[in-house]
Sequence to fold (611 residues):
Amino acid sequence: MTDAPAFADMAAAGRPRRKRANILVFLARRSPLSVILVALFAFAALFGSWLAPHSMTNTDLSVALEGPSASYWLGTDSLGRDVLSRLLGSAGVAAQAFVIVVLMGGLIGTTLGLVAGGLGGFIDLVVSRVIEILQGFPTILVAIVVVALLNPSLATAMTAVGLAAVPDFARVARSVAIQLREREFIQAARGLGYGELRILWSEVLPNMVGPLIIIASFDGAQAIMWEAALSFLGLGVQPPAPSFGSMLREAQNFLAIRPSLAIFIGVAVSGVVLGLNLLGDALAEYYDSTRR
Amino acid sequence: MQKNEITTYLLGRITGGVLTLLCVSALAFFATALAPGNPASVLLGNMATPERVAAITKLMGLDQPLPVRYFLWLEATLQGNLGTSNLSFRPVNDLVMAAIPVTLQLAGMSLVLAVLVAIPLGLILAQNRASWWTRPVSAIVTLGISVPGFWVGLLLIMVFSVTFKLLPSGGYVPIGRNIGGNLRAMILPTLTLAIYLIPSLVRFVRVTATSVLREDYVDTAKAKGVSSTAILLRHVAPNTLITTITYVGLQLGVLISGAILVEIIFAIPGIGRLGMNAVLNRDYPVIQGVVLFAASGYVVVNLLIDLTYALIDPRVRAR
Fold:
């Protein structure tokens, strides 16, 4: 973006710098809960392995299915593993799911949408049809096919979910690109003889960062939900590695004996997903307010 | 004139649907055919010797080139023959046909329940934006979007099966054998799937109805002294419904995915459980059958929704 300073400035003129610097203040005021939840999640994901008071995978049957205590704050699972430590590990797995899906959906989807919306014509027609077909196609069927092909793991499960995120990013990128296509600063760049692809990259793309971040936040939340669902089905993270889904799968067998197990795990997933969804809502409000 | 446009519109849709299905069929076939693990050795288990594996491979037609196998498979599939399960040797058709009504019952009951709850709730939330109770209800809706559906299922089992011992925690009773038992077994699964569908549907209806309430004809009706209930029922509800049908169509994938998860939690022998068991046992013909059937269902229902949409909304026809 630094190779076209004059036009980067023009593009930035649409979004006042001063207001952009205030994004954290805006979020903290508008939706403190989302900031707290997402910060907690990020902290747990980054430092979970250091914070974990016990091993995430070592089993000790003498302390199986214990309730919360001073040494096991959230109790232990059926193999005597510390639930808190495994939840911290699950946060790391969830963060990986988030990154894989947002990177994959973001890179493929944004490129497709940007090119389709920016160039129009036949390319747009083809891409739009593909988006239309992919959009809403049952993620779980894609996951079943991908896992049948590649064996279950976090990466394969998230490839399927990432494919499902492609149309979301593509749709947003395409509509922003179409809106911007005839704007003055784009015309100016065109007048200076910039190629269409260079215009897309250096003029159009920087202007869709806001909407893309919003989608990333929602689809990232979906990714974490799907990681849990697919690992719950046995199509994702494999035991003994901790993940929200694989932990719930084990907890299902002990609903009658130790219901707190399933409750703690579910509250943890829901908290993470809720935080990201609220963040998406707040970000949408932020970009909506700065646009005017 | 108009009729021609409808025909063109529908022909375009049908072509798109057929193309989707072709892509899905190729994907389902190649993904399962290229997957690691030879089904012949899976089938033989610990009785596998190289000679036996080779013999079974030949018997199953697995030694032919892939494109040949794909066209043979496609030809058979189009004639309605999906092959036999590598595991139980029962025809895939029979397995799928036995599972589909179960899934349809679950999905249908849940969808009806979800629509019956979500549409009135969304309309009421849109109309009473300033009431004291809308904020907490909206908060619950947002929370509902963030809670994993299968976890709700586990919570329901905890409350209704474990604590109060009112309902079975899983299992399935065929409708033909015992309607009461069937419904009893389906209550928790239906609730789980409906709770999974309701929040996003409420949110959608609320947003749509809010924008309809800003239309000029609503102001006109208000000025004419029409009561707010009548406005809601006569003007807002019908206009919201049209968009909602499309939305439900887009949510069809979510419904299918949700039904599969619910089937596994509650041990219901529907298409999802069939597919999952097939994946875990590398039973390729069944995987192909399940994916193909679910995808066809998805494509056909979407087509029907587009058709309904074109019939209800004159603007689509005019386009």
